[in-house]
Amino acid sequence: MTTSSNHPRNDRMLTVDQLREKITDGQIDTVVLAFTDMQGRLQGKLCHGQFFLDSVLSEGAEGCNYLLAVDTEMNTVGGYAITSWEAGYGDMEFAMDLDTIRLMPHNPGQAMIQCDLTGHDGQLIPMSPRSMLRHQLDRARKMGFRMLTGTELEFCIYNTGYEDAWAGNYQNLEPANQYNVDYSILGSQRVEPLLREIRNAMYGAGMTVESAKGECNLGQHEIAFRYDDGLVTADNHVVYKLSSKQIAHQRGRSITFMAKPNQRDGSSCHIHMSLRGLDGELVFWDRERGTRSATYDHFIAGVLKGMRELTLFYAPNINSYKRFAKGTFAPTAVAWGIDNRSCSIRLVGHGPSARMENRLPGADANPYLALSAMLASGLHGIEQQLELEPMVEGNAYESEAPVVPSTLREARDLFAGSALARELFGADVVEHYVHYADVELEAFEAAVTDWELRRGFERL
Fold first, then answer.
1. Which tens digits make up the pLDDT trace of 349-368?
2. Which of 231, 251, 361, 380 has its CA 20 to 30 A from that of 57?
3. In 10 A of CB 20, how many CB atoms?
4. Phi-psi region of 455 (alpha: psi -120 to 50; beta: other; left: phi over 0)
5. Residue of 227, 219, 226, 230 whose CA lies nearest to 258
6. The CATH fold of domain 16-125
7. Residue 420 and residue 310: Cα distance in Å, rounded?
8. Strand ranges (DSSP E) for 85-144?
9. Total-model pTM
10. Which fold does the domain 137-453 belong to in CATH?
């Protein structure tokens, strides 16, 4: 099921013919085939360039289906319907999306192609994150809509490299900045060689880079990219996340996208989203009245209705929930407001720029799952013409609005019992991701933490 529209996303992306030419003349010697797993990581294979041309391009490639049924440590765990020892751990096909061919400037001689995952029958595997987003985008298209979205991804930089961080049990890491550098030019310039290398590499990889800025935590920064179609944004997001870690490693540093790496402010992934008509016409704005459209209000209402039950797709890890705290710019209230950062849904812009910002996801979110949840629930609001509740004015942390789940366990239970989730994603997908949460919870609850040792080793 290799796909291509024969039009690269921009002039820095490659066509198949351009890739073939670069391999033939020796500029490219490695082609990375990559797909996104449940955890939001790029997995796959590194193919020799000539072998790619001679075999893979026409015959395809495959990988074990356990890759959609492992935990973060890559342990094969039981309980997933799509794979097991009894079923023989068969293969999935890597269905190359030939519109995603990009250079990887920080890895000279490399190009990457992102893939969908299919069965041997060529059908998309429904619980693959990229398949899930494709499904919701198709649903939007049938309703006459096109989704535009951008993800704002924060991260923390450490002068400690990954190997030393591992060896030191991730304790006593040296942050790249020693104080709050939010919007600080001085603070950004302190780490500008690394930020500049990431920005330029991502531009060379086909992304539209906007800017970089400091954030609140020690060594915390954000690089912003221009909004795009939903699948393009998600694809770019995971490539950027992988590449920035690789570039930091090449410089003897490390970057983390944990939602809450320490006791200071966590790292977010704010998602900006709007709908347009298939011909580009405005959907979220009524030009005649100069205000939000009824469709926009229905969409907001749908996102709010699904927020608690779909939090698992916005906050998929144990650590995700440590970020939700009052007064930290991470939301706790399921509420909306106009340019109000204390709400989980913040409305910004007007006219063509009118959009909603979902402030719930952390930097550890899988963008395909988070975008799928947001789009699916918003479209549900349009279909059902849900009425938008009154906005929250003032401090939403102190309002009477419902609150987001405070633990992965609570989010798991809400998702498992959600009729809305089953309607939007199907029972098979819901059961798959409920089991994902169960695996994480079981592993965490069996672990002896350093917190327990410090409190109890001597004093209990």
1. 999 999 999 999 999 999 99
2. 231
3. 16
4. alpha
5. 219
6. Ubiquitin-like (UB roll) (3.10.20)
7. 9
8. 91-96, 102-103, 110-118
9. 0.96
10. Creatine Kinase; Chain A, domain 2 (3.30.590)
